[in-house]
Amino acid sequence: MIKYDIGFLGGGQLARMSIQAAQRMGFRCLSLDPGLDTPASQVGDSIVGSLVDSDKIAELAKQCLRVTLENEFIPANAIRQAFTDSAIDEGSLIPGIDCLATIQDKLIQRQALLKAGVPSPKAISLLDRKTAIAQIGFPMVIKSRFGGYDGKGTRYAKTESELEEHRSLWTGAGWLAEQFVPFRRELAVMVFIDAHSRGAFPTMETIQTKHVCDLVFPGGVDASEVAIAAVEAVGGKGLFGVELFELESGEFLINEIAPRPHNTGHYSLDWGGVSQFEQHVRLTMGLPLGSPEGRETCMANLLGQEGASNLAHARARALEDPGVHVHWYGKAEAKLGRKMGHLNVVGGENLVERARNARANFYEGWKGAD
Ligand SMILES: Nc1ncnc2c1ncn2[C@@H]1O[C@H](COP(=O)(O)OP(=O)(O)O)[C@@H](O)[C@H]1O
Ligand SMILES: [Mg+2]
Would the CB of 151 count as within 6 Å of ligand 1? Predict the structure, then answer.
């Protein structure tokens, strides 16, 4: 019955790059995703099916020694149901079902952080608007408790009337209100925790454009202590991407935690040390961990552009700088603004400027004629 080592819930780029790292070590992998032609299905065996269907989750889990995930939106209840129905030990899910349940509701995640004394913006449900206004005040950030990514579930309200303008979003019980943080910069840290140890990759600065991560480069500070404390506060085991705010005072506040490899860890594919994907595989399979040390690297996301189809030309243009590495996810459709791949620049000087240049060249080539 068990034919695979690792089952991935989700078949996007994070599953694809994890599978590639796993295959290098000889592991057999299976992914589950509703899409027919996914980044993961191009590199390994896959099942087509819904990620909220416990029967489909069970179909995958029954064939795999360990199960992990590439997004936190898969309902913890569906996974629990699948495991119970098939008599699968809940311990075979990395990052843990309880941890997933805590993280996938942004309000419960915040409460877990605050309860553990981990610095994080104050947040409460928007169900009772008056209490929310009294406790949080303006400016206020409102967020969907479930399913937000790339800022799709995040809005700002500077006044009560702006909050009213968003009423159609938050009238159900599914939104929270939290303090607006006047941060100096946004940072991110990949954290890993297993039965024997805990640690972190370097603290990176992240630049978001229209709420989508744009550039990632070394932050020159160390926020690992608070990032590890955040993952401990949600009872996590495995690999986690932790997003933080840095205040003018130099203080760190936790924004959110992702229980999986993360866009801000992609630099590690080319930095020479263990990559976040290999670390994820090692954590999932209970192997000794790699040491998170490597060369300074800058990552730039490649987003879907209008009228761009010449991938061969794009690649060649980006690689004009010999320090550049191109990663492409093989997504079926290049929707505008969608994460299609990324570039890493490693070695030499001016990493951020070179990443920006390489990306501009990539886009120019992508839009160019043959
Ligand atoms: N409390 C806050 N104060 C100020 N800006 C915020 C706050 N929360 C989120 N943001 C901004 O919105 C972006 C998206 O919010 P986030 O909670 O990370 O949602 P997503 O799941 O879409 O990444 C953050 O990267 C940050 O730039
Ligand atoms: Mg975020």
Answer: yes
